[in-house]
């Protein structure tokens, strides 16, 4: 038959194929994947609906679907197939023309008419078939309807039918007999006498009733005289009369020539004898369709009925005996476990519905057979032998328990926890052997999965690197699931690319290690992964198109996939994929196992990475502490030497000039130490979020100029050539100019430190789109490729060596990055390698509004350059560091001021009340009263209303400064205070004292 109908790709739902007895089971177990109809999960909904109705029907029914009209049928239709139905796996799903080749040319026009919208109904249609290996005449009544696919196109035929061969032949025989009766009374009498058949012929139009002798005997009416309706009604048994009369009335009311068959009792009017009669007849109608005659036969079946009653009584007694044992009935009919009862020799005599349903067997399949020969054990000779041995042990009085595989009808293996035990009578004699059990398939699967997870956990628990964890986890999972490939991937920060760092493959399979984009695998995979759903594909060829990832999966030889995403913090972090080279229907347990493994792998890998990070942090901390000690010792050595020179040469001629150089050296070294400490404080403030930016519109060129001025001495000292290229027009940015100057200065200082003497440093600034880009390049030591990503980490130094001992603490670039990021910018490093120089680029957002001119630096307070000279102030110094207090007091006294010194907060308040100073320097961290509380109490003294309070402390965060202001301080100086800052304070205090 030509292919007139298109293929279909329906959704997957197998509920329609449930039930249906043997044919339903066969339908579910056949491999449809390579059949033209496709796998069950792909059947279109109209076909599913028709098949569901067909499997649930009791009357013979078939569905012919698709261009070749592939035949699907139920258990009742299997009988119609005759010998062809003995092996239904050879006919189910085959083209109709092949299954019914002997009648195809006769049936084809009927099916074609149905496919073209003309359903067919035939009654008692005759066919000559060879269904049993020889030609035979059969008759069938059937109706066909067209089935349409989801697009509304005719896709197949559904037929409900019933074989009427027996009825037609009976009717033919009866018609022939009636005809013979009408033509030859002698033949009629001979036939009736020979078979003791009663014959009746009721004329419905003339009310004539003709009965032969046997019919009169069956009803117990006199052998002569007329037969009337009253006589007939009186002959029916009172319990049957109403039913029989109703049946006849229904026959007369129904259309067509109806067949009549009934069994009832009669009571003889002659001797009161009760008989069972079987009556068969046919209603004949005239040309107008009105009932005309009712003809038929009667047969005395009393003997048969008596035998059946006796058999029922015997069966009833046996059932009563069984039902009397309530435990037995409860065990078999209400129990939730397998229940089997057998003879001491092992012959099965009863099985409950749980045992039968679990295997898909009918009672007739197992009753009367040795237990070990039943279908449950047919798939394993070893299991069957074990069952036979257990039955023998139970027959000898032992109770045995085994966990064994059992097999379901149509294929498939499950497991049972089975107990076989003897059943004894009251006298101790063995009556039966009983087997009870429960299905443990799911439990075993869970236990196997747990063992697998434990094995993976044990294998990865002691692993010290992610590669070992991934290798062991993928290998164990792949071998357990018997798949082609298992791959573990990390997802990159952009949440689009992922890197398969390791995969386990079977011999001959290709490795997929590499970097991929999620987009290559189609929208379905991309959406499932990013939304945290497991991607589950049983057959790539049927479920995906090339545009939706099928081409990529095919390229890596994958036909079935489980891909489990791991989402952490709302972002896709990792994936584990299980690949099968051939299509495969994944189970829920397999999916759950993969999901558990990927979660555990991530936990172990994160543990290892956290340990590595901790070790790395500890290493960098140790390096930092060693470097810090080195960096602090460097300036301390010349300071100590300078002090010794000052002591030894103080009284020698020409010492003033020499000591001036020593003082300059000591100032430089102290400045170096202050710079180190300030960097440490800055990074601490940034890390804790306590750094407050003083944002203002500036020209970036001015900020760069300030940074160059700061770094120029270091660059000149190293003999480097500095080249600067700035735009001619302003570069407007909204930044904290001090911090951005610090950023550029740090980059210039780094370039100076890591470039050999006489090197070249280039600083450029330019505008790119909506960003300002500042670049510092050098031809120094360069950066190794594996260090580029780490140079901005805390305590990281490049090219650390004895020769480059001026490397600093390793926090400068970390501070640079954090300050730039606080401004909404970014910083990056580039280098061609060791010895090839470095390049650092800072990107900052441009201002969107017009450039606002940078405010000019505030003029120094009057007299700031003269330390308040000309005005002698009364100054109180409070500091628990005795040396710090003494040196500051000495400086103030040399400047001509009257100074008092105390070393705790309480003493400061008492001395201030007596001394009434113009200016008080208070340390914050003092005993008895801290600086904040001392300031608050001083502000409460009326005699000190005009006093200036200055905090002199090592605490310099914005929060510390705010606390100082709240406590009543006028100024906040950081230790060690610069001389210019002290002079500015003295000048302000002098101004206030003169006011």
Summarize, please:
With 995 residues, the protein is an alpha+beta fold. The protein has 30 helices and 33 strands. A hairpin with a 5-residue loop joins strand 9 (274-285) and strand 10 (291-300).
Q: How much is the average pLDDT? A: 81
Shape: elongated
Number of distinct helices: 30
- Characterize the main sheet: 6 strands, antiparallel
Strand order of the largest sheet: 18-17-16-21-20-19
Helix content: 40-55%
Which runs of at least 5 residues are low in confidence (pLDDT < 50)?
Answer: 1-12, 799-807, 850-868
What separation lies between the terminal Cα atoms?
118 Å
Q: Strand tally, please?
A: 33
Radius of gyration equals 53 Å
How big a fraction of the residues is strand? 15-25%
Query: Would you tell me the structural class of the helices and strands?
Result: alpha+beta
Would you mind describing this structure in some detail?
The protein is of the alpha+beta class and 995 residues long. Helix content is 42%, strand content 23%. The chain is built from 30 helices and 33 strands. The strands form seven sheets. Strands 18-17-16-21-20-19 form a six-stranded antiparallel sheet. Strands 2-1-5-4-3 form a five-stranded antiparallel sheet, with helices on both faces. It has a five-stranded antiparallel sheet with strand order 7-6-10-9-8, sandwiched between helices. β25 and β26 form a beta hairpin. α6 (165-183) packs across α7 (185-195).
